[in-house]
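Lab meeting, action items carried over

1. Structure of the two-component assembly. Owner: GW. Status: complete.
Input record:
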Amino acid sequence: MADKVLEVAHLEKFYGKKHVLHDINFSVDQGEVVTLLGPSGSGKSTLIRCLNGLETYQKGTITFEGQKIVPTEKNWQQLRQKIGMVFQSYDLFPNLTVMDNILLGPTKVQKQDKQAARQEAERLLASVELSDYANAYPRELSGGQAQRVAIVRALALHPDFMLFDEVTASLDPEMVRGVLNIIEGLADQDNMTMIVVTHEMNFAKQIADRVLFLQDGEILEQTSSKQFFSNPQTSRAKEFLDSMDF
Amino acid sequence: MAHSGISVLFEGTNFMRLLGGLWVTVKIAAVALIFGIILGIILGVLRTFKNRPLRVVLRLYLEFFRVVPTVVLLFLFYYILPRQMNFNLPADQLATLVFVLWVGAEMSDIVRGALISVPRHQIESGKAIGLNRFQLYRYVLIPQSLTLEIPATINLATRVIKTTSILLLISVMDVINIGQQIIEANNHTYPTGVFWVYGLIFLFYFLIDYPLSWWAKRLEKRRLEKANG
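Predicted assembly:
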């Protein structure tokens, strides 16, 4: 039995009267890769953002590494060092160089030694083949390069758990592969525990241990990746897979 | 043509007195801008917080200083406050105080506007690497808002410098007040003196304000060029 890193129980979220997440229950084991799939507007992004405290929820509990999270801003701020997140918009800080973007978390939040943090940042940049861009500003990077830096910036805090929210959705097609390779590397070589929201079905099939299929804010299917892609149980999941061109 | 009007400027110490008046003007404007901008940045940041009572109070403060004409503010502080609250300051210090409060109010609106126009996902990605609220403002929001603020701030500075011309109303010995005295004292000997004295004052204000407004325009143009690639 692997350790449970994350456990979500009876999570409910409303936007005003609109019920956007219905009784969400799932858990993620150490080293496991879970993908959240579903049509747009199904609540995938809302759910993944709840796991990082960027969205509030009205009912239910989230337990991280055995500790039930008390959802105050202060607690989330601490937890975000362990739960890294990368977004769809490649959102580097335009006022800082690539290196300073990466160092901000380790040196200011975690108060790491500057020299050590810089070495680690250089190592991570090299791993995504962007060593030459350490002193560049974000506006000098392509979308794919910026997204790779955003991943490095999250990893520099040494999180235990990563959330990827449609990280390739706004990239040019030829940039997508490079970013996905990095995420695959993280899963395979570093055995990182992660939740990935994506529209790239081939990627999901390849990387996921398990799939959560969401529709209208409900988890309709929760099954192994193999099972989901070869033999989906619900008609909605079948329709969804048929509609995706892959 | 024994007396050409321009000579009035060089009669006795007149020119040095005018320069002295200009120095008073510039000093009041500079001190008001320095402290007003610091005050405005603090208030502007506070106005982006969610705390409702705080926002209401700061909004009222802004509206009061924006709606009430600066002359009225000066009179209020010069004539009414001393009598009602036993609050006495020399005219130039009082003028500086009024201008600091006024600049602070206007600046708070510039800062708030710039801060809330930093894209939302910048805040989220800052939070996602564990920044606390102070760090988020210090490293992400304030630096990014600066380029938006600078042109508006320079424009505010030119307005403040121009507005110092009303200081003679509370007897501050600024450049206008001294010019007025020189005109009155030399009215008989130099009937056209008024033209030259005000001409020189015009030149003084122009030499200070025009470069500022040119600089603001240039920065704004550069920012737009950068923003639009």
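2. GW to write a short summary for the group page. Key points so far: Residues 4-243 of chain A form a domain with the Rossmann fold fold (CATH 3.40.50.300). Chain A touches chain B at residues 52-54, 76-78, 80-81, 84-87, 89, 91-96, 104-105, 108-110, 150, 153-154, 157 (CB under 8 Å).
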